[in-house]
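Follow-up to my earlier ticket, as requested here are the two runs.
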Amino acid sequence: MKPYLNFSLIIKLVVLLVATSEMATDIYAPSLPEISRYFNVSDAQLTISLNLFGFAFSSLFYGALSDHYGRRPLILTGISIFVIASIMCWQANTFSVLLWARLLQGLGAGSALALGLAVIRDLFSGEQCAKIISKIGMVIALSPGLAPIFGGYIGSFYGWRSVFLIIVIFSIVLWLLLYFKLPETLIEKPQGDFSFITIFQGYKRLACNHVFVAFMMIQFMTIAGLWAELANLPFLYINDMGIKAYHYGYFAAVAVGSYVLGTIANQKWVSIYGMKRMLGFGISLVFFSRIMLLVINYFVELSPVYIQLVETPGAFGLGLIFGNATTYALESAGKDSGAAAAFLGTAEMLGGGIGVYLVAVFYNATIVPIAIMTAITAFINLLIFFYGMRSKKLECITISN
């Protein structure tokens, strides 16, 4: 630990950094049906997929570059790109321009999650790291909970462009705060000249690290299922179930509230039951809630209220998964923690982009494609967890289990 750094301030800045990048998608989710009508397209969800793909691939380079040049300059560079792209989204006059702007926005936002996690890993380790990540996750969860409510009202009364204007304002304020307040947290930097070969060598080590890959895949599958819901539920609720766009955020807030409770529970229980048990319990909750959604759908005509109630235990489980799986993955990476955070961020956003795309392709105005996608990803996570936890290679992580 570095006692001369203001830990509290750094954590708050990381929260703002990640929350703002998350808000860029969540705040305009209720406006997706309006964007479809405005540009006369049927695949407005692609604005989310391309954003996530840009986020995913740029994260690989941000993390590795930050291991050599430091976290601060790469964070400022990424947010600068994010600001420019947000302005382009606000002023887009064709759907193609909006798509390219969203891709560029993702390329800039890729610095947020990857380097935010790297900053936390610079300062904390073990169960303390898991607790901090859970606390950050709890606060960040308010972004997808409150942003759709706010964005739904703004978009309904002032149009979808006004939502992107809000993102522009937030991102400029964020850049100023980071520039004046964020210190460098990477104290020991690698010796020697940087080359792209070092990037791929670090990722090669991570790809051969079975411990890291196992927990990275859990994150990949979890985010794939989560984003499949986030991007497609607005179409189901607003277009096909008839709720108002400015009411959508209230339904999203139910899931976010349950997620926040999960992160609180993880902070309190992880020291008692250990990270392994908490992670397994979280994965199980997500799986069984999604299976219940599929089963109940064939006996009851589901409404948004029923859907959110059935998904509530799964949202609670997500609060147990993220902090623990992320910490396991970062702890297993050793000196490659920056690259690991980037690799993790890439896997998560790539999973999200694939999840959004697959459900959009098979969407049939019912909950079934969404529920099937989330159930499959949760089942794969169960297999990874129960098989992986029996592997002796996973026992090498020196964390209290």
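Run two:
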Amino acid sequence: MAKLSKKQKEAHAKIEKDKLYSVEEASALVKEITSAKFDASVDLAVRLGVDPRKANQMVRGVVTLPHGTGKDVKVLALVTPDKEAEATAAGADYVGLDEYLDKIKGGWTDVDVIITMPSVMGKLGPLGRVLGPRGLMPNPKTGTVTMEVAKAVTEVKAGKIDFKVDKTGIVHAAIGKVSFTPEKIADNAKELLDTLNKMKPAAAKGVYMKSIFMSSTMSPSVQLDPKTA
């Protein structure tokens, strides 16, 4: 096991062993124990009492964080010519169709979100092997396949994120930056947790939120009390 640095030891020492923190306490503590020289992301990891292998227990959705993610999200709008001006005006970083499909075929994936139209999805199917593993394949369920292109671009730019429970039953999501105030981090965390609570599958039995951990890119994890979520 790698030895902890002095700063890492100091960070671990500030976390009370076996204590379950409130969202507000964790939000302040994560800022305090982060020593990174860059503006680190703040992340939540929520273990749910679901079996993701069963379709009726899959948890997937979108949430608009009230204070955004703090990240400059690069958006590619794959649209027909009649929608290009709309996408550009809404703030999409890249707008077009065939030329970007060719770039993706060549391995280009330098974007965070791809928004497209139902009529274009047929052209994206063959690119699933490139886009799928990177989480870039548009999906109607997350609002990234739509005729309301401008609205979709605006929402993503404003802090709309999508999440999906992984095969181990955990939802991972970036909810802000260490430069945010503790209040903004807490607001964003509560918005995600509230959304997850509302999405509890009827087929899920027993405890739904089993554990919640908050951390930054360079900090230890702080465990939250699921009862406060």
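The only thing I checked on run two: The radius of gyration is 19 Å. Let me know what else you need.
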